[in-house]
Amino acid sequence: MQKHASVDELLKSGAHFGHLTRRWNPKMKEFIFMQRNGIHIIDLKKTEVFLKDALEQVKNLTASGKTILFVGTKKQSREIIKTEAIRCGMPFVTNRWLGGMLTNFETVKRSIGRMQDIESQRNDGTFENLTKKERLMREREYTKLEATLGGIATMNRVPGAVFVVDTVKESIAVNEAVKLNIPIIALADTNSDPDIPDFIIPCNDDSARTIQLITSNIADAILEGMAERQAREEEELAEQSLLESQGKAEAEAKDSPAAKTRKRRTRKPEGNKGPAKPAAAAKPAAKREAKPEVKSDAAKPAAAKETASKDAPKTEAKEASKGKEADKDSAKEA
Asked: What pLDDT digit, counting tens, does each position of 148-198 carry?
């Protein structure tokens, strides 16, 4: 369960004090408990509920790998924002918000690259080869860039969400985030418009103690979400390595000599193939049995005898006629 500041902790930090009644935004009416001495008092029970919801959203965003940009350029919030952002490893803006820092991020990236180039020149000894004037000019350029862009030097793309201390003071940053549909988590005082941020935390945004309490809760939620993401990635990596090891073990088992020996033993011996041959040998027998349907050589002599018996009277008659002719010739000669 996500830890969050209790009502007592919020009360001790002065989170319930709003602005003067004449400086209020009517849309914040539902979050105002009462007014005292011309000052609106914020309902801390609602603050606790909205804080809990905002922390849960922050945790889910970081657990999914999103980056949250911390923005707080007010004097009482600068050091707090910087410290807590560094603690949870998130980018931050505390000096001045450059117009187009989100909507024109590619240009901002080039300025970040220039700042990093100058820093590398300072470290590799290039400055020693420059004149005093050139060295001074680059030092001034680096100081100016670092003050504005030093907190976002590690930000390679537009953030997944923006955490803002004061939506009125940081109106440019809020408008750019709205234009790019970037979720906004913001502290909302009685003079703020609660409809602009996606997740509001109704409280005093001018008290350093309140800013410290809420910002530290946000940083804790970020760390918890990052730990959850890391644990999930480690679990997935362990499952993947387990599957790979199982696959290797199966492949090694198939290629092992014992497995090859089992394969040889399971093959049928050559002697078992013998009974199949009589079936093949039965085919010629079937052919030989089918041949008697055609006239066989044994049947041919019988047919020849029949034709010979039929032709015998004819030959006897021819021989008799030849004998008569021979008798006639012998009589003539006599």
From this structure: 999 999 999 999 999 999 999 999 999 999 999 999 999 999 999 999 999
Phi, psi of 185 (to 5 degrees): -110, 125
SS (H, E, C) the chain: CCCCCCHHHHHHCCCCEEEEHHHCCHHHHHHEEEEECCEEEECHHHHHHHHHHHHHHHHHHHHCCCCEEEECCCCCCHHHHHHHHHHHCCCEECCCCCCCCCCCHHHHHHHHHHHHHHHHHHHHCHHHHCCHHHHHHHHHHHHHHHHHHHHHCCCCCCCCEEEECCCCCCHHHHHHHHHCCCCEEEEECCCCCCCCCCEEEECCCCCHHHHHHHHHHHHHHHHHHHHHHHHHHHHHHHHHHHHHHHHHHHHHHHHCHHHHHHHHHHCCCHHHHCCHHHHHHHHHHHHHHHHHHCCCCCHHHHHHHHHHHHHHHHHHHHHHHHHHHHHHHHHHHC
pTM comes to 0.71
Tokens of 98: 């450059």
Task: Give me the phi and psi of 71, to 5 degrees please.
Answer: -130, 120
For the chain, list the domains and their CATH numbers. Answer: 7-102+158-235 (3.40.50.10490)
Q: Give the mean pLDDT per block of 10 residues along the chain (334 residues).
A: 84 93 92 93 95 95 95 94 96 93 93 92 85 90 91 93 95 96 96 94 95 96 93 86 78 68 58 50 46 46 48 53 54 46
